[in-house]
């Protein structure tokens, strides 16, 4: 009986019910989208790093493991030096030129990189031949509507697209190493160096040896480097995520509070009648809480479904380098946040409802 009455009350005011569900859905979508983009972008970066085929990463002196590289302070003679170290079978360096937002151009020794990574898997075209040739991965080509034979202007130079390859190979945009060194005014310099070992299980012991021999150079196993590409390892991103979650909770709380407060005012006479026929305060409060719980559940379901829309929008319209993944572990967390926040928002209107005097409520217009 109470459940039927609760559903009838929600159906009797469809606009308010729909707006309340939509507001809670937006709260859920905000949280899940932010978490999905944060995790997706970092995981995609880790996947590309693993796609290099390297076991060890060497970064410039003074840089941290996750700092961006906007300069090229290492000599391009260093890969030959590292290649002579025990267990190192291949060493190759790259130069990185940052672009807008998360994108960058990476200069590669194409032959060395192909030996290390197993080579690019081209969907169209092939490797660069001229210094002004460029290859890009399929998501970047789709975003920029590029095909083999097109030209693209970056860092004040025109590049000729010679190949489009499957994603996951270190970088989204690649050119010849020497060409990017010259175009950026960094001849014979590198941004970072990748090492491949004869036995990947010895990566940590080799890192310890190299750190002792080359003090000042941040040297990491690739496994450790990719493990650091997570939200929990980036304090600023983690704090930003918590701030947005807090804002979403406040928005949801306010919307539910206003919806339930309005519902109590609209149903003053109805509550008076329930009290007059002997309904207890607990019954009336329970009915309001059930309504709120249903709103939160429907809003959560709608919010989860909306994240698939944001994924589609992210895939087709978001700036390059942003990826949204579905983080299933956050579904129950977000549902809990939405439900608890909604129930808290209904407490004050609920108390107002049960404290109403039956006589005054029946005379309310």
From TrEMBL:
A single Gene Ontology CC term: plasma membrane
GO molecular function: transmembrane transporter activity
Coiled coil spans: none
InterPro entries linked to this entry: ABC3_permease_C, MacB_PCD, Macrolide_Exporter_MacB
One Pfam short name: MacB_PCD
Transmembrane segment boundaries: 20-42, 240-265, 293-315, 327-348
Keyword Membrane found: yes
Keyword annotations: Cell membrane, Membrane, Transmembrane, Transmembrane helix
Domain MacB-like periplasmic core, first and last residues per copy: 17-212
Major subcellular location class: membrane
Protein topology in the membrane: Multi-pass membrane protein
Compartment(s) where it occurs, according to its Swiss-Prot or TrEMBL record: Cell membrane
Domain ABC3 transporter permease C-terminal: 243-356
Similarity comment: family membership: Belongs to the ABC-4 integral membrane protein family.
Protein name: Putative ABC transport system permease protein
Organism: Granulicella mallensis
């Amino acid at each position: 009986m109470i459940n039927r009455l609760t559903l009838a009350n929600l159906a009797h005011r469809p606009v308010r019910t729909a707006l309340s569900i939509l507001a809670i859905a937006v709260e859920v979508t905000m949280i899940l989208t932010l978490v999905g983009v944060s995790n997706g972008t970092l995981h995609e970066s880790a996947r590309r790093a693993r796609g290099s085929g390297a076991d060890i990463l060497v970064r410039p002196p003074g840089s941290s493991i996750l700092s961006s590289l906007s300069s090229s302070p290492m000599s391009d003679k260093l890969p030959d030096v590292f290649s002579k170290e025990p267990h190192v079978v291949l060493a190759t360096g790259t130069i990185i030129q940052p672009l807008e937002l998360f994108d960058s151009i990476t200069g590669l020794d194409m032959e060395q990189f192909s030996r290390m990574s197993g080579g690019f898997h081209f969907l169209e075209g092939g490797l660069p031949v001229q210094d002004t040739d460029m290859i890009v991965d399929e998501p970047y080509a789709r975003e920029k509507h590029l095909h083999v034979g097109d030209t693209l202007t970056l860092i004040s130079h025109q590049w000729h697209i010679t190949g489009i390859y499957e994603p996951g190979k270190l970088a989204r945009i690649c050119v010849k190493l020497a060409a990017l060194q010259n175009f950026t005014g960094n001849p014979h310099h590198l941004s970072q160096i990748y090492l491949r070992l004869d036995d990947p299980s010895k990566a940590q012991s080799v890192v310890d040896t190299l750190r002792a021999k080359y003090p000042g150079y941040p040297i990491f196993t690739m496994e450790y480097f990719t493990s650091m590409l997570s939200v929990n390892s980036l304090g600023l991103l983690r704090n930003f995520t918590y701030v947005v979650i807090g804002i979403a909770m406040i928005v949801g709380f306010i919307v539910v509070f206003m919806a339930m407060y309005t519902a109590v005012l609209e149903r003053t006479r109805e509550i008076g009648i329930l009290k007059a026929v002997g309904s207890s305060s607990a019954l009336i409060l329970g009915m309001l809480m059930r309504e709120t719980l249903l709103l939160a559940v429907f809003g959560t379901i709608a919010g989860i479904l909306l994240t698939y829309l944001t994924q589609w929008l992210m895939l087709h319209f978001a700036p390059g380098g942003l990826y949204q993944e579905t983080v299933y572990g956050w579904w129950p967390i977000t549902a809990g946040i939405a439900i608890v926040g909604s129930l808290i928002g209904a407490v004050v209107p609920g108390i107002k409802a049960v404290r109403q005097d039956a006589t005054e409520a029946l005379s309310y217009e």
